[in-house]
């Protein structure tokens, strides 16, 4: 009997990840993130709101999407006219011109083309992580990676390609309805009785 329970527990733990509650994630972020900004409580609510809408608090969430276009800035001038020239003789252009997919990993839906390293992407690997680490039950490296991103955004990013990728990823997971979120209302259910 006990053995069955243990086996079931392991099976669940390994395959399906964990669905956190809003308040659990709030607590984990309070412990793991340093937000040196005045309205950090509301920013925390906004981050958790993004998680709710993008991954549904599922620590194992994975999504694959076509590489996002440049965040709209003026008329769309095809960054890669050569990319449309499919079936041309030598398709040995730089990777920049290929149709790529991005895989988004975990609670925060972070991209393998930006933060972590997977078989599919020759990535920036900003967080120096294997992408698998972002879909296990242990959220400490996920949160550390969010901290790395926040730190990176705090200062002008020297390398333009890095900046471009980070901004692409953020425009992708950006949820407009979260931007006005206030901690007092969003976390109201988390108040201790
Ligand atoms: C969490 O996401 C994984 C991967 O997409 C999926 O297999 C699993 O069923 C999800 N868990 C729940 C409870 O929705
Ligand atoms: C494409 O480039 C790779 C190295 O980047 C080279 O090994 C390969 O031979 C090239 N192929 C063609 C068709 O030029
Ligand atoms: C989570 O992973 C970190 C290292 O990434 C480790 O130090 C920590 O003990 C792990 N926590 C749990 C609950 O396994």
UniProtKB/TrEMBL annotation:
Which Gene Ontology biological process is one annotated for this entry?
Answer: defense response to Gram-positive bacterium
Does Nucleotidyltransferase appear among the keywords?
no
Q: Where is the composition biased (Low complexity)?
A: 81-92
The UniProt entry, under SUPFAM superfamilies, shows: Lysozyme-like (SSF53955)
Q: What UniProt keywords apply to this chain's record, in alphabetical order?
A: Secreted, Signal
Locate the region Disordered: 62-97
- Where is this protein found? Secreted
The record's listing under Pfam families reads: Lys
Gene Ontology CC: one annotated term: extracellular region
Would you tell me the protein name for this molecule? Lysozyme C, milk isozyme-like
């Amino acid at each position: 009997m006990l053995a069955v329970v243990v086996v079931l527990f392991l099976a669940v733990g390994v395959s399906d990840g964990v669905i956190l509650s809003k308040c659990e994630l709030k607590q984990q972020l309070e412990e793991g993130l340093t937000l040196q900004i005045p309205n950090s409580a509301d920013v925390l609510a906004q981050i958790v709101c993004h998680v709710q809408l993008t991954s549904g608090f599922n620590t194992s969430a994975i999504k694959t999407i076509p590489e996002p276009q440049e965040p709209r800035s003026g008329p769309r001038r095809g960054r890669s006219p050569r990319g449309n020239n499919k079936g041309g003789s030598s398709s040995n252009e730089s990777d920049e011109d290929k149709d790529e997919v991005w895989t988004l990993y975990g609670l925060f839906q972070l991209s393998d083309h930006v933060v972590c390293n997977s078989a599919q992407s020759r990535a920036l690997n900003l967080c120096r992580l294997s992408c698998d680490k972002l879909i296990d039950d242990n959220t400490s490296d996920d949160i550390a990676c969010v901290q790395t991103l926040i730190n990176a955004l705090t200062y002008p990013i020297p390398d333009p390609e890095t900046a471009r990728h980070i901004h692409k990823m953020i425009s992708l997971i950006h949820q407009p309805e979260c931007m006005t979120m206030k901690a007092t209302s969003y976390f109201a259910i988390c108040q201790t009785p």
